[in-house]
Amino acid sequence: MEQRQIFSSALYGILAILTLVLAASFIVSLFLRFSSMEESSVAWFLVLFSFLAVFIGGFIAGGKAKRKGWLVGGATAVLYTLVIFLVQFLGYNQLFDLQQSLMHAGYTGASVLGGILGVNLIGGNFRE
């Protein structure tokens, strides 16, 4: 039962992450299309927003699970990394390089932190 709750909560976090990332990608693509900005000028913004989106996803997952925020946040990050890896490998026939591996390690840390805070701030006061 507990594993189903962890997986279900992680799926809520993944849904939140993907929604935020897709919305930001759409907005940034509109700016790039209809302004004179170039991709290099928004690269750091996208990296920071990705970390924020993964943190929010971990926060939502931790709040939904109501316990073990570090585990739920970690599961959310691992599922997100798996989705990105599958898209990149199956769609572009490329593996992660060192920079991407480090980015996803950072995503895991951000999601774990979000999960811990989600449990403690919105998860209620559940005690075993």
Q: Can you walk through the features of this model?
A:
This protein has 128 residues and is mostly helical. It contains four helices and no strands. It has one domain. It has helices at 2-34, 39-65, 69-92, 98-122. Helix 1 (2-34) runs antiparallel to helix 2, helix 1 packs across helix 3 (69-92) and helix 2 (39-65) crosses helix 4. The longest helix is centred in the N-terminal third of the chain and has 33 residues, at 2-34. The model has no long low-confidence stretch (mean pLDDT 91). This is TIGR04086 family membrane protein.
Would you tell me the structural class of the helices and strands? Answer: mainly alpha
Number of domain modules = 1
- For the secondary structure, the number of strands is 0
First-last Cα distance: 15 Å
In the predicted model, the low-confidence regions spanning at least 5 consecutive residues are none
* Overall pLDDT metric: 91
Beta fraction: under 5%
Shape: globular
Largest sheet descriptor: none
Secondary structure tally, helices: 4
Summarize the amount of helix as a percent range: over 70%
> Nearest-angstrom radius of gyration?
16 Å
**Series of secondary-structure elements, N-terminal to C-terminal:** HHHH
Transmembrane segments: 12-35, 41-62, 69-90, 102-122
Organism: Alteribacter keqinensis
Keywords: Membrane, Transmembrane, Transmembrane helix
Pfam family, one: DUF3792
